[in-house]
Design a protein that fits this description.
By secondary structure, the protein is of the alpha+beta class. The chain has 22 helices and 28 strands. It is globular and about 85 Å long. The protein binds pterin cytosine dinucleotide. This is Carbon-monoxide dehydrogenase large subunit.
Length: about 800
């Protein structure tokens, strides 16, 4: 065997701000989205949807639709699910007695929200399928519409699901006294020198991803193939098999490039199941792609909580306890993780603070609205908002600077690891460093002086300063913890590395990127681990045939869990190559060291590159016994703990007190995501996250009218901000490595969204506080701001 040294990779790839390798195909249209897929003989589906939020279906007449041009079939629930037993799955029961209704593929006998499907047209073209929808005649008999979360919980109120006997989905409680992680909150409130109580509303949001949902099913051939615009191809495959009783080895799910999800594409949709059933019935490929209006009305919404919060403190500013009573609107059904979303927040209300008494109680309630589920941050933005808003209000009550109040109560960097009152152990953090850097970039003291001057001069445009010092738990995993919170959820991730004979590397990951840039970051990790050029690595994902195991992408988990699985698999590749290197170099394994992609005999210039070993094992006929002729390896990683990114966000708003218009003058954020694998991707994730968080603060709300109809289901009415609405962000980082994974990394995918909403609303309220304003409900539209100034507290 020859021993040809290869050129060592000089600079580490991890930490390089590389442009994303996937972007060229994404932004030049050289890729395939689900809706681009065209198969021979493919038929198109269109769904007839209910205009009523709560009604009995007294008659459906599909005869005329069946005779329309191009129509192949029209099905109702009776055709697709004659037994009436199929239910779109929900995976996360949060209590053993959680109430969950069946979520049918198509409504049978009764509709529970406006937009629910009642029939499906199958036609030769999309246009013919859409045209035939109008020919379906449905009679409804209206039922009382349940919209108000609090009213829905009162005795004798109309029920969304009669069979459940209640509108309450579940009650979930965490009490630090009972958990042994702290004291009794009622005692803390009774003994407090100061208490502040506030009610905050988390308005309902629509995830508004760019690519609408789409599903293609091909039942021909040996396996049934499902292409879906989904975040969860692996979960979708297993859930579809379980729900429809299909043999899983006969199913293949492919998530091609997916145009954003933000949590909105976690779900096994009735439309997914419907597409499978129709394809099976007709034995032909089918495609369902929703319109933007369908997407706004029926893709799950998010947030929609009422938060009653009381904070207790001593006069010197020491916070002693926090009590949270929450009501969360589930909408008409349970989403895949919907009931668990508020629970993720339960562990984050204490945020970066050290107080020692905490009680959280959450009541999930059904209403006749679109169901709610995860949306960027899922539970953690809501919790962060409440604690960061009430810290500001407490500062006012104590006449303290809000930053000084935070500094007094936060966990000091030398106190890590720190077990919080909610029972989590934060591994590392340095709130002092991130805050100091943010203050420096923001000119905190200078802006406070300008604020005082504007107030004194009665300037119609007032300046407000908003602070958000946040942390969050992400990297979902660990299975042990998730399993204790729910019944059935796991959190590991899988990776495989295949070193091809020519030394090129295929990385197979169970994560399923839909905009996060995994192909680039994973290549950087593998390039360093194996010492091969970045360009020699190809990342394969989103296809259950090439990547048979995985738990997909959400909860800012992919790097810390999936990325670590890759590190582990790479270590095994190197371990596998080592005895071969020793054989080739005719030395003992212990004499070898591996750096820069080469095994070198210590103290000599004898070396062999790992890429050469890959070719050598492929062609060799003299391998020692027990050596396999390849370097492939795989690994599964399930961490011991979450990761806890943190940071300080500072926002300055100018609020026109005459018109109510809010302008963000400057926005500074200093985030700590531990080791940044690719600082450019991190910055991009922060930017996107900030825009979504600011949008909740200022622009977005999904509004149902008194009949339960969504009133703003188009982008003309639902204000997704554009670049023109946004300020230039000043983004910086501190780097406190995590000790929960070998990369030292913490997740970043949701951080910007979690942190930014309270920073902005705190700034809006801060601008107007001297005018008597105590609260401005989100979104802080000009009308709401104007009303807060001129017409009371809202
Ligand atoms: N990263 C890094 N260094 C770190 C942390 C992360 O370089 N210390 C990189 C990772 O390599 C990865 C990206 O940042 O390329 C995000 O990593 P991570 O925080 O692990 O989050 P996930 O990849 O698991 O993505 C999920 C997260 C979530 S929960 C939502 S919601 C969200 C988000 O990502 N939805 C997105 N970002 C999105 N970005 C786009 N474009 N589209 C979405 O739908």
């Amino acid at each position: 065997m020859t021993t040809v040294p290869i050129t060592a990779v000089a600079e580490p790839e991890v930490g390089k701000a590389r442009l994303r390798k996937e972007d060229a195909r994404l932004i030049t249209g050289r890729t395939r989205w689900t809706d681009n897929i065209v198969l021979p003989g493919m038929l198109h589906l269109a769904v007839k949807r209910s205009p009523m939020a709560h009604a009995k279906i007294t008659r459906i007449d599909v005869a005329e639709a069946r005779s329309m041009p191009g129509v192949v079939a029209v099905y109702t629930a009776a055709d697709l699910d004659p037994e009436g037993t199929i239910s779109a799955p929900y995976a996360w029961p949060i209590t053993p007695d959680m109430k969950a209704p069946r979520r049918p593929v198509l409504a049978a006998g009764k509709v529970n929200f406006a937009g629910e499907g009642v029939a499906v047209v199958v036609a030769r073209s999309v246009a013919e399928a859409q045209d035939a929808l109008d020919a379906i005649d449905v009679d409804y008999s209206a039922l009382p519409v349940v919209l108000d979360m609090e009213a829905a919980l009162t005795d004798g109120y109309a029920l969304v699901h009669d069979e459940l006997g209640t509108n309450r989905n579940a009650l979930w409680v965490f009490d630090s006294a009972e958990a042994g992680s702290g004291g009794n909150v009622d005692d803390a409130i009774r003994d407090a020198e100061v208490t502040v109580t506030r009610r905050f509303r988390q308005q309902r949001l629509a995830p508004a991803f760019m690519e609408p949902r789409s599903t293609v099913v091909d039942p021909t051939g040996n396996q049934m193939t499902i292409w879906a615009a989904t975040q969860i191809p692996h979960i979708l495959k297993t859930m579809t098999a379980l729900t429809l009783g299909l043999p899983e080895h006969k199913l293949r799910v492919i998530a091609p490039d997916v145009g954003g999800g933000f949590g909105g594409k976690i779900g096994v949709l009735p439309e997914d199941l419907m597409s499978v059933l129709v394809a099976q019935k007709l034995g032909r490929p089918v495609k369902w792609t929703e319109t933007r209006s369908e997407c706004m009305m029926t893709a799950h919404h998010a947030r929609d909580q009422i938060q009653d919060v009381t904070i207790a403190a001593n006069r010197d500013g020491t916070v002693t306890g926090l009590k949270v009573d929450l009501i969360a609107d589930m909408g008409a059904y349970c989403g895949l993780v919907g009931p668990g979303v508020p629970i993720l927040g339960a562990f984050m209300f204490n945020a970066i603070y050290k107080f020692t008494a905490y009680r959280f109680a959450c009541t999930n309630v059904f209403t006749n609205k679109t169901l709610t589920d995860a949306y960027r941050g899922a539970g953690r933005p809501e919790a962060t908002f409440a604690i960061e808003r009430i810290m500001d209000e407490l500062a006012v009550e104590l006449d303290m600077d809000p930053m000084a109040l935070r500094e007094k109560n936060w966990i000091k960097h030398e106190e890590f690891p720190f077990t919080t009152v909610a029972g989590l152990t934060y591994d590392t953090g340095n709130y002092e460093a991130a805050t100091a850097r943010a203050k420096e970039l923001f000119d905190y003291d200078g802006l406070r002086r300008e604020q005082a001057e504007r107030r004194a001069s009665g300037d119609p445009v007032q300046l407000g300063i908003g602070i958000s010092t946040y942390t969050e738990m992400c990297g979902l995993a660990p299975s042990r913890v998730l399993g204790s919170l729910s019944y059935g959820a796991g959190g590991w991730e899988h990776a495989a590395i295949r070193m091809l004979p020519t030394g090129k590397v295929e990385v197979v990951t169970g994560s399923s990127a839909h905009g996060q840039g995994h192909e680039t970051a994973w290549s950087q990790i593998v390039a360093d681990q194996l010492g091969v050029p970045f360009e020699d690595v190809e990342v394969l994902h989103g296809d259950t045939q090439t990547s048979p195991r995985g738990l997909d992408t959400y909860g800012s988990r992919s790097l810390t869990v999936g990325g670590t699985a890759i590190v582990k698999a790479a270590e095994r590749v190197v371990a596998k190559a080592k005895p071969i290197a020793a054989h080739m170099l005719e030395c003992a394994e212990d004499d070898l060291e591996f750096t820069g992609g080469r095994f070198t005999v210590r103290g000599t210039d004898q070396a062999v590159g790992i890429q050469d070993i890959a070719l050598a094992v492929f062609t060799a006929h003299d391998l020692p016994d027990g050596i396999e002729p390849h370097l492939d390896s795989e690994a599964v990683y399930d961490p011991e703990n979450f990761s806890f990114p943190h940071g300080t966000h500072l926002c300055a708003t100018e609020v026109d007190t005459e018109t109510g218009k809010v302008r963000i003058r400057s926005y500074v954020c200093v985030d700590d995501v531990g080791k940044a694998i690719n600082p450019l991707i991190v910055e991009g994730q922060v930017h996107g996250g900030l825009v979504q968080g600011i949008a909740q603060a200022l622009y977005e709300e999904a509004v149902h009218d008194e009949s339960g109809t969504l009133t703003n289901g188009t982008f003309a009415d639902y204000h997704v901000p554009t670049a023109a609405d946004m300020p230039t962000f000043t983004v910086d980082r501190t780097e406190t490595p995590s000790t929960t994974n070998p990369l030292g990394a913490k997740g970043v995918g949701e951080a910007g969204t979690i942190a930014s909403t309270p920073a902005v609303v705190n700034a809006v309220v801060d601008a107007l506080r001297h005018m008597g304003v105590r609260e401005v409900e989100m979104p802080c539209t000009p009308m709401r701001v104007w009303q807060a100034i001129h017409g009371g507290t809202r």
